[in-house]
Amino acid sequence: MDVADLLRAALLGILQGLTEFLPVSSTGHLLIVQRFIGYDDPGGVFTVMIQLGSILAVMWLYRQRIWDVVTGLPTKPEARRFALMLFFAFLPAACVGLIANSYIRNELYLRLDLIAIALILGGFAMLAIEKWPPKVEVKDAAETPIWRAIGVGVFQTLALIPGVSRSGATIFGGLTLGLDRRAAAEFSFFLAMPTMMGAFVMDFIAVKDHITSERAAEIAVGFVFAFISAWLVVKPFLNFVTKVGFGPFAWYRIVAGAVILGVLALGWL
């Protein structure tokens, strides 16, 4: 096994974990960095498998909430309401994803210019909602009304476009629909669990035949680093956006998108 391949796998795992739950587009970052460092990922198998590390990290962090909901389903109305809220929020992206998955992966994932434009537009959208925030109606993500949850789910469908960012779209949707900063970010984490797990299962079925013993070490390294970096970033991110807001992430998106467009114009990617 080439040490350089393992180092690239570790780098991509860290990148996946750090960006998955930040509103900056993990998919966009992975596609661009893979191209930049010359990492070949036939069938997208590496990307699919390390995503599971990020999913498990956030599930571990919220393991008590998950346990309370699962064990409370037979007897507790609040547990059933929480599960129903996430189910309805999950449906829009699940339906659109099932229909458009092939087009998205085979066409949109190849468009680095589209990723750059999506980063820039998403950054300006975040700056706008920070400057003109809607009235706050919800301060606890678990108490989000069903209709608002569905609305956030509709916003999540935008994240099927690479560069938009799943967390960015859902956080923006939450803010637009009256959730405060912390509630919007935490709702995004809750919604990530069924959404990312569903996407992982669908993608795994598509790439399972490409998983070989030769790639196992790279996948293992990427998975571990994705888990650790996601585990480290989620709670500090919540505290940061509660105090500071999403402005720094918006400006990062705009600058990153502009740099990508510049690099593409120069023919370096």
Keywords:
mainly alpha, globular, about 270 residues, 11 helices
What oligomeric state do these chains adopt? single chain
Q: Count up the helices.
A: 11
Q: Write down the domain tally.
A: 1
Summarize model confidence as the mean pLDDT.
Answer: 92
Q: Give the terminus-to-terminus CA distance.
A: 27 Å
| Main sheet attributes: strand count, strand direction, barrel closure | none
Assign an overall shape. Answer: globular
Category from helices, strands and their pairing = mainly alpha
- Please tally the β strands and state the result: 0
Uncertain segments are none
**Overall radius of gyration:** 18 Å
Element order: H for helix, E for strand: HHHHHHHHHHH
Q: How much helix is in the residues? A: over 70%
Strand content: under 5%
